[in-house]
Write a structure and sequence with these properties.
This protein is an alpha+beta fold and 328 residues long. It has 2 domains: 6-104 and 134-263, Hypothetical protein, domain 2 (Endonuclease III, domain 1), CATH 1.10.340.30; 125-132 and 265-328, Endonuclease Iii, domain 2, CATH 1.10.1670.10. 45% of the residues lie in helices and 11% in strands. A hairpin with a 2-residue loop joins β3 (35-40) and β4. α8 packs antiparallel against α9 (206-222). Residues 70-81 have low confidence and may be disordered. The protein binds a DNA duplex (14 and 13 nucleotides) through residues 23-24, 145-146, 148-156, 158, 199, 202-207, 209, 246-252, 255, 268-273, 291-295, 320, 324.
DNA sequence: GGGACACCTTGGTT
DNA sequence: AAACCAAGGTGTC
């Protein structure tokens, strides 16, 4: 039913799936017992956490397998079933998974540096180990974070599920859950009544943002561009580029820059980080305002970037998750 | 140019 | 139970 299990040679200190995958970087991971399942580069990936060996193994589903194709007749066949593709060769899956987890970046040394620069980080670091940034597909990341505005992780997840099930391409079923590709911008842009449909799918006022941005990106891509071309450009350029899209403000732009465009210094200031700064860092920042504004946003983001250094965004992820789990 | 204000919808709290 | 608030904010006056 699947290709062979392979090893993601990263220790628990380097990556903790249970912290990273459900905490609002990607909104597409499903937990199945000790496994985490999602789609990377249009292939279903199953990650298995093996605490006994302090290692993670993974495999990909073979879409042609009977076990994974049983459910076809039960779905509305609006999308013509394209002939099942064969799974990508193992080396491609390997490189995709390692790329997705930013595996060449060593977390241990980053934690050391953050701890040395910031007393508060040092204080919480022991309880929040293995928190790293994923390196996500640019369009999926951009689209997901447009949906994140004034919203909760739970509902964002639901919206993205609906989006993929409606506009994505079916890949395979695993443990009774169907997996789909993330729809391309051009698919959304050319789909009739897309914005209205998105509202029906629970997007609320974000439906227009997603549709307009999909159209803008599709047009731009039609001229021979690719979002991933922006990788490697300076943070300010990436940010300016992203801010042109409807539904993208400073916070969303910083998230996408950090999580998809390799801008490791980008520090998104969301409501949780804002709260924790008020509570823990405020005396140092002379930050008195109670509400967010563009100026306050820029000040805070810059302050934390200076405090944590070139990989400040990675420290932000740790702080963010610690705040999400404050009660635990 | 900054500061209210509205915005879809869901889930949790009072 | 009805009202209210917050949720990884943004666009618009």
């Amino acid at each position: 039913m699947s290709t062979a299990w392979r090893q993601l040679r990263m220790s628990g200190k380097e990556v903790s799936l249970d912290w990273i995958l459900p905490s609002g970087q990607s909104f597409r991971w499903k937990r199945e017992g000790e496994e985490w399942v999602s789609v990377i580069q249009d292939a279903v990936i199953i990650l298995r956490n093996d605490p006994s060996t302090d290692n993670i193994t993974y495999c990909t589903l073979d879409p042609r397998s009977p076990e994974t194709t049983i459910k076809h007749e039960s779905k509305p066949a609006q999308i013509p079933p394209s002939p099942p593709k064969s799974p990508p060769p193992a080396y491609e899956i390997d490189s995709a998974v390692h790329d997705y987890f930013n595996s060449s970046i060593k977390l241990a040394s980053l934690y050391r540096e953050f701890g040395a620069r910031d007393k508060y980080f040092k204080q919480i670091a022991d309880r929040f180990v293995g928190i790293r940034m994923l390196r996500q597909d640019p369009w999926e990341c951009l689209c997901s974070f447009i949906c994140s505005s004034n919203n909760s992780i739970k509902r964002i997840t639901q919206m993205i599920d609906n989006l993929c099930a409606t506009y994505g391409t079916y890949i395979a079923t695993y443990k009774d859950i169907d997996y789909y590709t993330f729809p391309r911008p051009s698919t959304l842009a050319s789909s009739p009544n897309c914005a209205a449909k998105l509202r029906e799918l629970g997007f609320g006022y974000r439906a227009d943002y997603v549709y307009k941005t999909a159209k803008a990106v599709a047009d731009w891509e039609a001229q021979g561009n690719q979002l991933s071309d922006m990788r490697g450009k300076p943070y300010d350029d990436v940010r300016e580029f992203l801010l042109q899209f409807t539904g993208v403000g400073p916070k969303v732009a910083d998230c996408v820059a950090l999580m998809s465009f390799d801008c490791h210094e980008s520090v998104p200031i969301d409501t949780h980080v804002f709260n924790i700064v008020k509570r823990r860092y405020s005396p140092k920042t002379k930050m008195v305002s109670k509400t967010m504004s563009k100026v306050v946003y820029d000040e805070l983001s810059l302050y934390l970037r200076d405090l944590w250094g070139p990989y400040a965004g990675w420290a932000q992820a740790v702080i963010f998750i610690s705040e999400l789990n404050r009660d635990k």
